[in-house]
Amino acid sequence: MDLSRLQQQLQQPNLAPVESWNPTFCGDLPLRIDVDGNWYYQDSKIERLALVTLFAKVLLRQGQEYFLQTPVEKVRIQVADVPFLVTQSQWQQGAAGPELWLTTNLGDAVPLSADYPLVLQAFAGQALPYLQLWRGLSARLHRNLYYQLLQESDLQEECTQASKVHIRSTLQSAGQVFLLAEESTLATAADT
Protein backbone atom coordinates (compact mmCIF):
# COMPACT_ATOMS: atom_id res chain seq x y z
CA MET A 1 0.00 0.00 0.00
CA ASP A 2 1.28 3.47 -0.80
CA LEU A 3 0.49 6.77 0.87
CA SER A 4 -1.43 8.30 -2.05
CA ARG A 5 -3.80 5.31 -2.31
CA LEU A 6 -4.50 5.50 1.43
CA GLN A 7 -5.18 9.23 1.14
CA GLN A 8 -7.70 8.65 -1.66
CA GLN A 9 -9.57 6.03 0.38
CA LEU A 10 -9.84 8.37 3.36
CA GLN A 11 -11.32 11.22 1.35
CA GLN A 12 -14.47 9.25 0.56
CA PRO A 13 -17.49 10.82 2.26
CA ASN A 14 -19.67 9.16 4.91
CA LEU A 15 -17.21 6.51 6.07
CA ALA A 16 -18.32 4.23 8.89
CA PRO A 17 -16.58 4.39 12.29
CA VAL A 18 -13.11 2.85 12.26
CA GLU A 19 -14.05 0.31 14.94
CA SER A 20 -16.69 -1.26 12.71
CA TRP A 21 -14.34 -1.88 9.80
CA ASN A 22 -12.72 -5.30 9.46
CA PRO A 23 -10.15 -4.91 6.67
CA THR A 24 -7.30 -7.17 5.65
CA PHE A 25 -3.94 -6.48 7.31
CA CYS A 26 -1.58 -5.29 4.57
CA GLY A 27 1.71 -5.00 6.48
CA ASP A 28 3.80 -2.09 7.65
CA LEU A 29 3.71 1.42 6.20
CA PRO A 30 6.92 3.49 6.55
CA LEU A 31 5.03 6.06 8.60
CA ARG A 32 6.11 7.03 12.11
CA ILE A 33 5.16 9.53 14.78
CA ASP A 34 8.01 10.87 16.92
CA VAL A 35 7.90 11.78 20.63
CA ASP A 36 6.91 15.36 19.77
CA GLY A 37 3.85 14.29 17.75
CA ASN A 38 5.49 14.93 14.35
CA TRP A 39 4.50 12.56 11.54
CA TYR A 40 7.05 11.23 9.06
CA TYR A 41 6.65 9.21 5.88
CA GLN A 42 9.86 7.48 4.72
CA ASP A 43 11.79 9.73 7.13
CA SER A 44 10.41 12.92 5.54
CA LYS A 45 8.33 15.07 7.86
CA ILE A 46 4.74 15.50 6.71
CA GLU A 47 4.29 19.27 6.79
CA ARG A 48 0.66 19.42 5.63
CA LEU A 49 -1.52 19.50 8.75
CA ALA A 50 -4.58 18.54 6.69
CA LEU A 51 -2.90 15.30 5.63
CA VAL A 52 -1.82 14.44 9.19
CA THR A 53 -5.35 15.19 10.44
CA LEU A 54 -6.80 12.96 7.75
CA PHE A 55 -4.58 10.03 8.78
CA ALA A 56 -5.27 10.66 12.47
CA LYS A 57 -8.99 10.12 11.81
CA VAL A 58 -8.33 6.45 11.04
CA LEU A 59 -5.62 5.83 13.63
CA LEU A 60 -6.24 3.25 16.33
CA ARG A 61 -4.26 1.34 18.91
CA GLN A 62 -4.59 -2.39 19.44
CA GLY A 63 -2.47 -3.77 22.26
CA GLN A 64 0.87 -1.99 21.97
CA GLU A 65 0.63 -1.43 18.20
CA TYR A 66 -0.77 1.41 16.12
CA PHE A 67 -2.64 1.05 12.84
CA LEU A 68 -4.20 3.17 10.13
CA GLN A 69 -7.42 1.39 9.23
CA THR A 70 -9.66 2.06 6.24
CA PRO A 71 -12.66 -0.01 5.14
CA VAL A 72 -10.44 -2.15 2.90
CA GLU A 73 -6.88 -2.00 4.31
CA LYS A 74 -5.12 -1.98 7.65
CA VAL A 75 -1.46 -0.98 7.96
CA ARG A 76 0.81 -0.83 10.99
CA ILE A 77 2.77 2.35 11.75
CA GLN A 78 5.40 3.18 14.37
CA VAL A 79 4.72 5.54 17.28
CA ALA A 80 7.62 6.54 19.55
CA ASP A 81 5.45 7.36 22.59
CA VAL A 82 1.89 8.49 21.82
CA PRO A 83 0.50 10.02 18.63
CA PHE A 84 -0.67 13.34 20.07
CA LEU A 85 0.33 16.11 22.47
CA VAL A 86 -2.06 18.25 24.48
CA THR A 87 -0.93 21.79 23.76
CA GLN A 88 -3.73 24.05 25.04
CA SER A 89 -6.29 24.26 27.81
CA GLN A 90 -9.31 26.38 28.55
CA TRP A 91 -11.75 26.39 31.47
CA GLN A 92 -15.45 26.43 30.60
CA GLN A 93 -18.61 26.10 32.65
CA GLY A 94 -20.25 22.69 32.25
CA ALA A 95 -23.30 20.91 33.64
CA ALA A 96 -21.28 19.42 36.54
CA GLY A 97 -19.30 22.61 37.23
CA PRO A 98 -16.06 23.90 35.73
CA GLU A 99 -14.61 21.78 32.92
CA LEU A 100 -11.03 21.89 31.71
CA TRP A 101 -11.07 21.53 27.93
CA LEU A 102 -7.83 20.15 26.52
CA THR A 103 -6.80 20.61 22.88
CA THR A 104 -4.34 18.40 21.02
CA ASN A 105 -1.70 19.46 18.53
CA LEU A 106 -4.18 18.49 15.78
CA GLY A 107 -6.95 20.72 17.14
CA ASP A 108 -9.17 18.06 18.75
CA ALA A 109 -10.68 19.39 22.00
CA VAL A 110 -12.26 17.31 24.76
CA PRO A 111 -13.26 18.02 28.36
CA LEU A 112 -11.16 16.46 31.10
CA SER A 113 -13.82 14.07 32.41
CA ALA A 114 -14.62 10.44 33.17
CA ASP A 115 -14.79 9.87 29.40
CA TYR A 116 -11.40 11.54 28.82
CA PRO A 117 -9.37 11.09 32.03
CA LEU A 118 -5.74 11.80 32.87
CA VAL A 119 -3.57 8.79 33.72
CA LEU A 120 0.01 8.94 34.99
CA GLN A 121 2.44 6.94 32.84
CA ALA A 122 6.22 6.65 32.77
CA PHE A 123 8.02 8.76 30.18
CA ALA A 124 11.73 9.67 30.14
CA GLY A 125 12.19 8.46 33.71
CA GLN A 126 9.27 10.29 35.29
CA ALA A 127 5.53 9.84 35.70
CA LEU A 128 3.64 12.26 33.43
CA PRO A 129 -0.07 12.76 32.77
CA TYR A 130 -1.56 11.37 29.58
CA LEU A 131 -5.04 12.22 28.35
CA GLN A 132 -6.97 9.08 27.39
CA LEU A 133 -8.80 9.52 24.09
CA TRP A 134 -10.77 7.31 21.69
CA ARG A 135 -9.86 3.96 20.09
CA GLY A 136 -7.12 3.27 22.64
CA LEU A 137 -5.25 6.47 21.77
CA SER A 138 -3.79 8.97 24.19
CA ALA A 139 -2.01 12.32 24.26
CA ARG A 140 0.84 13.43 26.53
CA LEU A 141 0.60 16.90 28.04
CA HIS A 142 3.14 19.24 26.43
CA ARG A 143 5.76 20.36 28.96
CA ASN A 144 4.68 24.03 28.90
CA LEU A 145 1.03 23.13 29.46
CA TYR A 146 1.98 20.63 32.17
CA TYR A 147 3.82 23.33 34.14
CA GLN A 148 0.94 25.77 33.64
CA LEU A 149 -1.57 23.23 34.96
CA LEU A 150 0.67 22.42 37.93
CA GLN A 151 0.37 26.08 38.94
CA GLU A 152 -3.43 25.86 38.71
CA SER A 153 -3.69 22.53 40.55
CA ASP A 154 -4.55 21.75 44.15
CA LEU A 155 -1.51 20.64 46.13
CA GLN A 156 -1.88 18.22 49.03
CA GLU A 157 0.96 17.15 51.32
CA GLU A 158 0.70 14.20 53.67
CA CYS A 159 3.33 12.99 56.13
CA THR A 160 3.38 9.23 56.55
CA GLN A 161 4.60 7.27 59.54
CA ALA A 162 7.67 6.14 57.56
CA SER A 163 9.07 9.71 57.63
CA LYS A 164 7.98 10.33 54.07
CA VAL A 165 6.14 13.27 52.57
CA HIS A 166 3.61 12.34 49.90
CA ILE A 167 2.72 15.22 47.58
CA ARG A 168 -0.22 15.08 45.14
CA SER A 169 -1.23 17.66 42.58
CA THR A 170 -4.84 17.35 41.39
CA LEU A 171 -7.27 19.10 39.05
CA GLN A 172 -11.03 19.07 39.42
CA SER A 173 -12.97 19.06 36.16
CA ALA A 174 -16.51 17.97 35.25
CA GLY A 175 -17.17 17.06 38.88
CA GLN A 176 -14.21 14.63 39.05
CA VAL A 177 -10.72 14.85 40.56
CA PHE A 178 -7.75 13.95 38.36
CA LEU A 179 -4.19 13.29 39.46
CA LEU A 180 -1.72 15.54 37.66
CA ALA A 181 1.44 14.63 39.60
CA GLU A 182 2.52 12.83 42.73
CA GLU A 183 5.79 12.26 44.51
CA SER A 184 7.00 10.74 47.77
CA THR A 185 10.17 12.00 49.42
CA LEU A 186 11.88 11.53 52.74
CA ALA A 187 10.88 14.17 55.27
CA THR A 188 13.60 16.61 56.28
CA ALA A 189 13.96 18.16 59.74
CA ALA A 190 12.15 21.25 58.41
CA ASP A 191 9.18 19.09 57.32
CA THR A 192 8.62 17.49 60.73
CATH topology of the largest domain: duf1285 protein fold
Strand order of the largest sheet: 3-2-1-6-5-4
The SS-based structural class is mainly beta
CATH superfamily of the largest domain: duf1285 protein
> Which second-level CATH architecture of the largest domain applies?
Roll
Average predicted local confidence, pLDDT:
87
| Separation, N- and C-terminal Cα atoms | 64 Å
- What is Rg? 20 Å
Q: SSE order, as H and E?
A: HEEEHEEEEEEEEEHEEE
Characterize the main sheet. 6 strands, mixed
Account of the protein in words:
By secondary structure, the protein is mainly β. The chain folds into two domains: 77 residues, Roll (duf1285 like fold), CATH 3.10.540.10; 103 residues, duf1285 protein fold, CATH 2.30.270. It contains three helices and 15 strands. The strands form three sheets. The protein has a six-stranded mixed beta sheet. The protein has a six-stranded mixed beta sheet with strand order 9-8-7-12-11-10. Strand 5 and strand 6 form a beta hairpin. About 3% of the residues have low confidence.
Describe this structure in a few short sentences.
This protein folds into two domains: 77 residues, duf1285 like fold, CATH 3.10.540.10; 103 residues, duf1285 protein (duf1285 protein fold, Roll). It has three helices and 15 strands. The protein is elongated and about 55 Å long.
What descriptors fit this protein?
duf1285 protein fold; 15 strands; 3 helices; six-stranded mixed beta sheet; duf1285 like fold; single chain; 2 domains; mainly beta; 192 residues
